[in-house]
Amino acid sequence: MKVAIALLVMIAASPAWAQRIELTPLAAYSTSASIDKRAARVDDLSIAGGFTWGGAATWFVSDHIGVEALFAHQWTRLSMTSEGSSAELFRVTSNNVGGNVVYQFGQSTLSWHPFIFGGAGMTTFDAPDVERDSEASWTIGGGLKWFVRRHVGVKGQARYASTLNAEGSAVCGPFGFCQQALRHVEVAAGAVFRF
User: Fold this and answer.
1) What CA–CA distance (Å, rounded) separates 5 from 140?
2) For residues 107-118, average pLDDT
3) Number of helices (H), then strands (E), in the chain
4) What is the mean pLDDT of residues 98-118?
């Protein structure tokens, strides 16, 4: 309760011109995420990398600090390599929803804004004939925004994402992977619209 009151006081104390919203549709590439513990004769087991799309909505409560809602969606596959042969085991849909705290550097009047962010959320894995699995996740990252006009710009960012395995390393399954966390890096770009 004290945190909520402190946040409301901080928002109310911010000048009205500093309170703004930025919307960003994003196109990205996510690296593959290897699954650590493998069965005998399995050389590699991973959730493949590939195209990811999503978006972010950021509310800046001051010139430098913002809160962000982030969504990322990827169609991918679980693939395995054994004795030199690779095979797709099944198709996977991955959805990541989270909240971040954003800090941007520089004056609000500048066109260029480097920024960093970090936060937590939930990642859901879904595939035909396999039980859906949702796990807690966290992310950190940074990037650069360039406003070519007052309300329109471009944004590039990179983020490290880690999906946690609540069941721990003793449990193995299609999505209950045999390790504490599933990790990947995502590089994204998109337009940014400031209101």
Assistant:
1) 26
2) 91
3) 1, 10
4) 93
CA dihedral sign, ordered 44, 45, 51, 53: negative
pLDDT of residue 107: 84
Distance CA 6, CA 161 (A): 29
Domains and CATH numbers, the chain: 2-194 (2.40.160.20)
- Given a contact cutoff of 8 angstroms between Cβ atoms, the answer to whether 191 and 145 are in contact is no
Q: What is the pTM of this model?
A: 0.80
Share of the chain above pLDDT 70, in %: 80
Phi, psi dihedral angles at 17 (to 5 degrees):
-70, -20
Instruction: Give the Cβ contact number of residue 72 at 10 Å.
Output: 24
- CA–CA dist 182, 178 (Å, integer): 9
- Banded pLDDT at 139 (limits 50, 70, 90): very high
